[in-house]
Design goal:
The complex is a heterodimer of chains A (about 600) and B (about 160). Chain A has 24 helices and 19 strands. The relative contact order of chain A is 0.09. Chain A has 5 domains: about 100 residues, 3-Layer(aba) Sandwich (Glutaredoxin), CATH 3.40.30.10; about 210 residues, NADH-ubiquinone oxidoreductase 51kDa subunit (Rossmann fold); about 80 residues, Ubiquitin-like (UB roll), CATH 3.10.20.600; about 90 residues, de novo design (two linked rop proteins); about 60 residues, 2-Layer Sandwich (Alpha-Beta Plaits), CATH 3.30.70.20. The termini of chain A are far apart. Helices cover about 40% and strands about 15% of the residues of chain A. Chain B has 2 domains: about 60 residues, no CATH class; about 80 residues, 3-Layer(aba) Sandwich (Glutaredoxin). In chain B, helix 1 packs parallel to helix 3. Chain B is α+β, with helices and mostly antiparallel strands. Chain B is built from 7 helices and 4 strands, in the order ααααβααβββα. The chains are: A alpha/beta (about 600), B alpha+beta (about 160). At the A-B interface, helix 1, strand 11, strand 15 and helix 16 of A face helix 2, helix 4, helix 5 and helix 6 of B.
Chain lengths: ~600, ~160
């Protein structure tokens, strides 16, 4: 496929978290070196950029070619030479590296044609994957810092706050508190200094939305924060970023420096006479610090314990001064609202939840990745149209939203619209945007146990209901998974859950029972199977599962024996393979590797 | 054990920050990065510099996951147990590594070479389940791959 008129002038190599783990940085370096070393001999005006996440992590590393807008997937370092010779120098498309859409069975060139990108609407992620995060000029070329000029030079603080209020923007950190209202309350306080905080302590397992924005488009957050600070009259801001996100910290540090040099941050911003600066604070790896008051305690240099919120942070927050704390994604939305106006923003999404939401769509779904969709899209559309359906064509069981304190939503609710209120009603929550898809091989009791184990470890220990309650819930769940539970344990479980919900001090404790309550509500039969039949239907709980080989299906190929890490599978004289139960660690390697579905998963009782 | 000169670092690290309580976490993080744990001697020095009780440092060190009072191994094996990895059976990887190295998560082998940790989400959910050894990523790991990975770092001495 040759296209003579083709001139590639920009190559975007995805260096988001998913692609980085597949050596995308090496690919970027190799491509760059290749072009650099040939520059003296031939005229190539192609620039290579390492960008933030392109979103489609499943098929990474991804490379996008502009202006022709086609992309390669699953690229390896060894492909660089061919890409350089054929695509960059001769404008030839390498068929092999194009994305093959399984559902339509077609090779796809442009991202817009892929089911994964169709239906997405990018606001918070507008620049992620499109620009070099280390270049402020790239950001400005795409309209960056225009909103700041409009806000500081042409608007009153009242106009800014009204615009944000009018847009209906709700906090993207999970709780969905109206951002404009928060700002107005803080602006009215006559207590100085006031503080601005960006919450980048993204601790939810299975979530990397904020990380992608921090890494891929740091300036959008800075711009949002300066506008917010100006509106409430604050001169000092903090960005709390997880220490594990070292690339995010690196990129943000650089971006802050650039913004200062360009006069968008620091003293006398844009000659308006207004001063504001931002400092980065590295998180210490405690989930509870994502809670706003705990986060503030951590910035102050204390252990991150939350306080009761009878008095809100807008009145007494950081060092007891009025504070506006918003999530990364919320800040990234602000410049767009100021630039394009509230009515434009409101035209997207639903009446009660305008705009879009970024999700990390992960788990047993075909197209794992980072997506941004208008509010009000149904779970079915997200999982099947964008996510491409369930991996390995297994059966859908549940989708978990809202992180560890969210809930599991079953198949009958797949047509639920995704917005703050609908998810709450279903017993789950929006949370920061993790969306984990589960299939028939996921045990729902184990999932509940997993989240509660996480939460019991992350509970700060300040209030009794959370510290002791979660631990008791966990013990009962462990009993259920080990086959030691009785019928009445289920009632006890529900009772403790309700108590914790009603009495815990902060959001972490209050929502902690959600995974248990929703799984009992929607998947009670699985609890019953564990408790009465001592059987784990999904074959996950080891104590309640036994693997055996179906003699009729076994073709004696020996693949399972070769792949068994504990050498538990032996061939008997009759050539049939059997599993030695005393050696079997129930890791499931044989189930996954067998081409003939000959490894059976059975309940412990049934096989005894 | 560390010699006297080593602790020059602690002094340098502390003095990069003003004597303000709010830099405490940052100082401790930098010490952790330098020594791979928080040596007792370093904590004494921080205590003196910041003029705060040692108990306060202890409460910080035990509260934040990024801080550790025990030395960590040369190779830190992190098994991601984020939700995406968990439902793709990351637990079996932890079990397999535990079995081979004879240590539980959070422990270090007696020769000080390997530490085993479970972490909550490394953001590489597409490659789940994921293992990271120091800074190297391994994606779509199966229990049978574990031994080969440990062997890359010299394996266990028998």
């Amino acid at each position: 496929m040759k296209n003579q008129s083709m001139r590639i002038n920009k190559i975007l190599v995805c260096c988001g978290p998913g692609c980085l783990s597949n050596d995308s940085l090496d690919i970027y370096e190799a491509l760059k070196n290749k072009i650099e070393s040939d520059k003296p001999y031939i005229s190539i005006e192609t620039t290579v950029k390492a960008t933030g996440c392109h979103g489609f992590c499943e098929i990474g590393p991804l490379i996008k070619f502009l202006p022709l807008d086609f992309f390669y997937c699953n690229v390896k370092v060894s492909d660089v030479e061919e890409i350089y010779q054929k695509t960059i120098k001769n404008g030839e498309i390498i068929e092999r590296l194009l994305y093959h859409d399984q559902n339509s069975n077609q090779k796809i060139k442009s991202p817009e044609e892929a089911g994964f990108y169709k239906g997405q609407k990018k606001i918070a992620l507008r620049n992620v994957g499109e620009i070099d995060p280390l270049s402020i000029d790239d950001y400005m070329k795409r309209g960056g810092y225009k909103a700041l000029k409009k806000a500081l030079l042409k608007s009153t603080t009242e106009q800014i706050i009204s615009e944000v209020e009018e847009s209906g923007l709700r906090g993207r950190g999970g709780a969905g508190f109206p951002t404009g209202f928060k700002w107005r309350q803080c602006a009215q306080m006559q207590n100085f200094p006031k503080y601005i905080i960006c919450n980048g302590d993204e601790g939810d397992p299975g979530a990397f939305m904020d990380r992608s924005i921090l890494e891929g488009d740091p300036h959008s957050i800075i711009e949002g924060m300066v506008i917010g600070a100006y509106a409430v009259d604050s001169h000092s801001g903090f960005m709390y970023i997880r220490d594990e996100y070292f690339l995010a910290i690196k990129n943000m540090t650089k971006a802050l420096e650039q913004a200062r040099n360009y006069g968008y941050l620091g003293q006398d911003i844009l000659g308006s006479g207004y001063d504001f600066d931002i400092q980065i604070v590295r998180g210490g790896g405690a989930f509870v610090c994502g809670e706003s008051t705990a986060l503030m305690a951590s910035i102050e240099g204390r252990v991150g314990e939350p306080r009761a919120k009878y008095i809100r942070s807008v009145e007494k927050g950081l060092w007891d001064k009025p504070t506006v704390l918003n999530n990364v994604e919320t800040w990234a939305n602000i410049p767009v609202i100021i630039n394009e106006g509230a009515s434009r923003f409101k035209s997207i999404g639903t009446a009660q939840s305008p705009g879009t939401k970024v999700f990390s769509l992960v788990g047993k779904v075909k197209n794992t990745g980072l997506i941004e969709v208008p509010m009000g899209m149904t779970l079915r559309q997200i999982i099947y149209d964008i996510g491409g359906g369930i991996a390995l064509n297994k059966k859908f069981k549940a989708v978990q939203t809202g992180g560890p304190s969210g809930g599991c939503i079953p198949e009958q609710l797949l047509d639920l619209k995704v917005d703050f209120d609908s998810l709450d009603k279903a017993g789950s929550m929006m949370g920061s945007g993790g969306m984990i898809v589960m299939d028939e091989t996921t045990c729902m009791v184990d999932v509940a146990k997993y989240y509660l184990a996480f939460l019991s470890e992350e509970s700060c220990g300040k209030c009794v209901p959370c510290r002791e309650g979660i631990r008791r819930i966990l013990v009962i769940l462990e009993d259920i998974c080990n086959g030691r539970a009785q019928d009445e344990d289920l009632d006890l479980l529900i009772e403790i859950c309700e108590t914790v919900q009603a009495t815990a001090l902060c959001g972490l404790g209050k929502t902690a029972p959600n995974p248990v309550i929703t799984t009992i509500k929607y998947f009670k039969d699985e609890y019953i199977a564990h408790i009465r039949d001592k059987r784990c239907p999904a074959g996950v709980c080891k104590e309640l599962t036994i693997y055996s080989i179906d003699k009729d299906k076994c073709k004696s190929c020996g693949l399972c024996a070769k792949n068994c890490p504990s050498s538990a599978i032996k061939q008997e004289q009759s050539k049939i393979f059997t599993i030695d139960q005393t050696k079997c660690t129930k890791c499931g390697a044989c189930v996954d590797i067998c081409n003939f579905h000959a490894v059976k998963i059975g309940g412990a009782l049934a096989c005894r | 054990m560390e010699n006297q000169q080593d602790f020059q670092y602690t002094r340098q690290i502390s003095q990069q920050y003003p004597q303000d309580k709010r830099f405490l976490l940052a100082i401790l993080q930098d010490i952790q990065k330098e020594y791979n744990y928080l040596p007792r001697e370093s904590l004494y020095m921080v205590q003196e510099y910041m003029d705060i009780p040692l108990a306060k440092l202890y409460s910080m060190a035990t509260f934040y996951k990024a801080l550790s009072l025990k030395p960590k191994g040369r190779y830190i094996i992190k098994v991601c147990d984020g939700t995406a990895c968990h439902i793709r059976a990351s637990q079996t990887l932890t079990d397999e590594i535990s079995k081979i190295l004879k240590i539980a998560p959070g422990q270090t082998t007696s020769d000080g070479r390997f530490s085993l940790e479970t972490v909550n989400c490394l953001g590489s959910c597409a490659a789940a389940p994921v293992i990271v050894v120091n800074d190297r990523f391994y994606g779509k790991v199966t229990p049978s791959m574990v031994k080969t990975i440990i062997d890359e770092y010299g394996g266990i001495y028998s």
